[in-house]
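Review form for a predicted model. The reviewer records the input and the model, then writes brief findings.
Reviewer: anonymous (R2)
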Amino acid sequence: MHQVETRWSQAQPLAREQVLQGQLQPWQHVQVMAQVSGRVENLARQQGDQVSAGDVLLELSDEGRSKQLAQARASYRLRQTELESTRKLRASNYATETEIVRLEGELARAAAELEAAELAVQYSQPIAPFDGVVDRRHVEVGGLVQSGAELMSLVNVKRLKASAQIPQQDASRVAVGQEVKVQLMGGRELQGQVRFVSLAADPETRSFYVEIEADNPELLRVAGGSATLRIQLPPVLAHQFSPALLRLGPDGQLGVHAVDENGQVVNHPVRVVAITNDGATVEGLPERLQVITQGAGFVRPGQQVTTKLVQAAVEDSDATSPMPLPGTGAAE
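Model under review:
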C-alpha cells in the first residue's frame, strides 16, 4: 500500500472581482433640434451653462406664429358657440342630427389646428429636456435655422454610464446591483453598480453587454473616455496551495488529489480563481479536506493509501515544475 504525505486545507472566504475594460458615456446626452424655422433672436444659455429641465435655451423669431395662434383660438371659440346653439335648436327640432355631427367635426378640426398653433409658438423657444449642462452651441444670434437643424448639445454627467463586454464563460458571475469600482485614467476612482446585463450574447463575439452606472459628483471630464471596471462579485470559499499540486484529469480538467475519510484517493475538480506569488487560489473543493502534498503522481483515484500528515507550511510535490494554468477572468 502506498504512503502519501498530506496536510489539512481549510477554505477561507475570498472576495472576487471581474475586471473589464469599458467606455464611459454621459448619463443623458441629447442634441436639441429646431422644430420650426426662424431666425435666432436671443441665446438664453451659453456653452458651459447649467440648466434645469424646462429652462428656455434660445428664442427664434415669431414668423407670424402668434397671429396664427390668435386666429386658431378665435376659430375654436366660434365652432364651440355654433355647436352649442345648434344643440339647443335640435332640442326643439329646429336642427337636424346631421347638422350636429357636421359641427362636431368642425369643432374637432378647429381643436387640432389650435393645438398645432400652440405648439408652433412653443417651439419658438426650445427648452432643456433635463437638468444638465450646455456642452455645445451650434448657432449664433441672427442666424437663420430650418426645422431639423441642430441648436445645442446638452449633457448630464452627474452620473455616468459605462458599457463593456463580458466573456460568455463569466456572464453568470455578474448580476444587476453588484458594486463596481470604476478606475479612471490618472488613477482616480468612482463608485458604481451594475445596471443591466444583456440576456443574449453578441453572435459575433459571444460576449454579453453589461452597463454600469456611477456617480460623478465632481463633474469630472471623463465622459467619452475609457475606464477599468472592477465588478465586485459575491465571495466564495476558496483554498490556496502550490500550483504544483494541481493535476490534469483524464477529461483534461484541473483537479487536486486528496484522501477521504476511508483512506481512499479522491480527485476533486477545481476552478482557478487567482494565481499570485503566494500560490494558486481555487474554488470547487469541500470546505475542509486532506490534500496530498507528496506522492500524488504515484496513486490513482479510488486507491487505498496510508497517510503521513505534515505541517501546512510543508507544501511540496512530486512534480518537477508547475504546469501552466489558464486565465480566470478575475483580478490577480
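Findings: Residues 103 and 197 are 55 Å apart (CA to CA).
Further findings: The longest strand covers residues 12-33.
Recommendation: see findings above.
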